[in-house]
Amino acid sequence: MKPNCPMQFEGIDHVVLQVSDGERALHFYTQILGLTVERVIEDLQIYQLRCGRNLIDLRVLPQGKRLAEKDERGIDHVCLMMQGDIDTIVNYLKEHDVPIVFGPVELYGATGFGTSMYVLDPNGHTIELKAAYAQYPLRTTAKEAMAGLTRPTAKP
Q1: Nearest in space to 121 (alpha carbons), one of 36, 19, 40, 34
Q2: Disulfide-capable partner of 116 in 101, 109, 130, 155 (CB 3.0 to 4.6 Å)?
Q3: How far apart are CA 25 and CA 37, in angstroms?
Q4: Higher per-residue pLDDT: 153 or 75
Q5: How far apart are CA 45 and CA 27, in angstroms?
Q6: Would strands 46-51 and 36-41 be described as parallel, antiparallel, or unpaired?
Q7: Alpha helices of the chain — where are they, by DSSP H?
Q8: Which CATH number do you get for residue 99?
């Protein structure tokens, strides 16, 4: 913390993701990831979804406005903390045609090391799904993982 700074941060309250198709995005976040709709702001076309102590807002772009390309967005990914058996989660995502683009692999974050996997939502946003502790035996080194050399595999 910077000396004499009056602010003491406790965490992130919410993240706003712009989406081109609200129904498709709602299906992904509620029906596949299991988040719940807490509030809808109709006139602004915003869906506020509960994710633990935090919110994810899905803001539907006005018709005709294009979603920025990934390298134009200014944000790389959002990490969602989760619990559950990694193999069961990997199989569940595959059954719902959600490709795992990276992982599972052990990575470091706000709560320390954990098992992470990266998926894409219907709008191409990268979502990291992270279990707070390593539940998955690593098949690569951290250096290989960060170089993108891991492949999603199930335990034997």
Answers
A1: 19
A2: 130
A3: 12
A4: 75
A5: 15
A6: antiparallel
A7: 22-26, 86-95, 142-146
A8: 3.10.180.10
